[in-house]
Amino acid sequence: MIAKKRSGHPRDYREGYLQGYHLGLCEAVKRMSTPEVGASRPLRLMYVPQGFQAIDTGMAEALRLLVSELIICSPETMLEVAARESPEAVLVMNGLHVFPENHLDQIDAIRQLGIKTAIWFVDDPYFTEDTSVICKHYDYVFTHELNCVEFYRSLGMTSVYYLPLCVNPQMFYPRRTGPQYHYDVVFIGNAFRNRTELFDQLAPFLRGKKVLIAGGFWERLNCYQELLPFIKSGFMPPEETANYYSGAKLVINIHRPWEGGQDNRNTFQLPSLSINPRTYEISACGTMQLTDIRGDLDSHYTPGRDLETFASADELKRKIEYYLNHEKERRQYALRGLRTTLLRHTFTSRLPHLLGVLTAQG
Q1: 37, 200, 355, 361 - which has most CB atoms within 10 Å?
Q2: Is the pLDDT at 260 greater than 90, yes or no?
Q3: Considering the chain, what is the average pLDDT of its residues?
């Protein structure tokens, strides 16, 4: 009888072992780093989502734990639902993109019913042409952009609060992934000008590496044909994004440029200081990230400990090369970033501040 040969390559077995080992460490970190959720606040709250799953799902799940009663409705039916359900407060997410033209009329009418209204802007400062108008229709304004707090106050708003973004750890978490998700280097996002400039500079360096560049408009690259084998075009759902983050050795984070142009409506040209949701989502997946630098980054993570930073294409090349060849250090960064995220940057840890404002004032 002829014995069957074992299928698979030794490298595949090693990668499987390393993935299992890393996931075991991530699970240990999760068990030590998930704070208990406190008692819910006695608040009847109506929440109006913006239609972006990664944020809306995290908000809804957290609010169900944090308030005594949660009502969720669409932007089109805000006034109708508020008049019928009589919530104590209405919280609107962003008020942009999918919101109907009459949404501000609805908010004004809700306020006339004696119901408090709040909005959390999470696309600041890229739409200041719009948010400068929208903010004036709400009682409370929250913004994830540190540089927009004084901007809204300068427009006459008195109740303006800085509320950084965060992550839903039930959507973005370390997971076992198949080989189709295993890459050396991953970037997921649209091709804004600063991103295409960077990847054009990286193009020769990326040859011979397993790379994924996903998102829209990457045909803007000067080196498009050279990088085309790495590109996966179009929108990627959050669950799929989390699979690629979890399967990657390194994930690059490049913030959107704040300057005006074809991709922004930042009429007031406010520079951006705050970090994007991608910062939290990558670290929540237990993967090391290399991020460009925002002014408020070290208020949330410790560069050189939770994640690594870069200020130029050459610095990024050096750090990619180094960390691809130093697995232990890469894993330590990933685990520390995961721990910081779970302890400080989830919706359940972020939203009590917002709810405290709504319940503490008149």
Answers
A1: 355
A2: no
A3: 94
How much is the average pLDDT of 279-306?
A: 98
What DSSP designation does 285 have? Answer: T
Contacts for 165 with CB less than 8 Å, ≥ 6 apart? 122, 144, 274, 275, 276, 277, 280, 350
Quickly tell me which residue has 């990933």 as its tokens. 334
Residue 305 CA neighbour count, 13 Å, CB half: 9
Q: In what order do the strands lie in the sheet with 41-48?
A: 67-72, 41-48, 89-93, 116-121, 140-143, 160-162
Alpha-carbon distance values, 186 to 97, 172, 181, 206, 252 (Å): 27, 15, 10, 11, 6
Q: What is the value of pTM for the model shown?
A: 0.94
pLDDT-derived band at 37 (thresholds 50, 70, 90) equals confident
**DSSP label at residue 8:** S
- In this prediction, residues 275-282 reach a mean pLDDT of 98
- pLDDT tens column, 10-34: 666 667 778 889 999 999 999 998 8
Asked if 212 and 185 count as a contact pair (C-beta separation under 8 A), the reply is yes
Residue located via tokens 């068990």: 31
Please give the full DSSP string across 43-98, using - where no structure is assigned.
Answer: EEEEEE--S-HHHHHHHHHHHHHHEEEEEE--GGGHHHHHHHH--SEEEEE---SS
Alpha helix locations (H) across the chain? 10-32, 53-66, 78-85, 103-112, 128-134, 149-154, 193-206, 224-227, 238-247, 277-284, 313-324, 327-344, 347-360
List the 183-188 sheet strands across, edge first.
231-233, 211-215, 183-188, 248-253, 288-291, 308-309
Dist. CA 259–CA 256, nearest whole Å:
9
Residues 141, 149: Cα–Cα separation, whole Å: 9
C-alpha–C-alpha distance, residues 47 and 297, integer Å: 29
Do residues 33 and 150 touch, judged by C-beta distance below 8 A?
A: no
pLDDT at 1: 43
For residue 3, name the pLDDT band (cuts at 50, 70, 90).
very low
Domains of the chain and any CATH numbers: 41-166+346-360 (3.40.50.2300), 179-344 (3.40.50.2000)
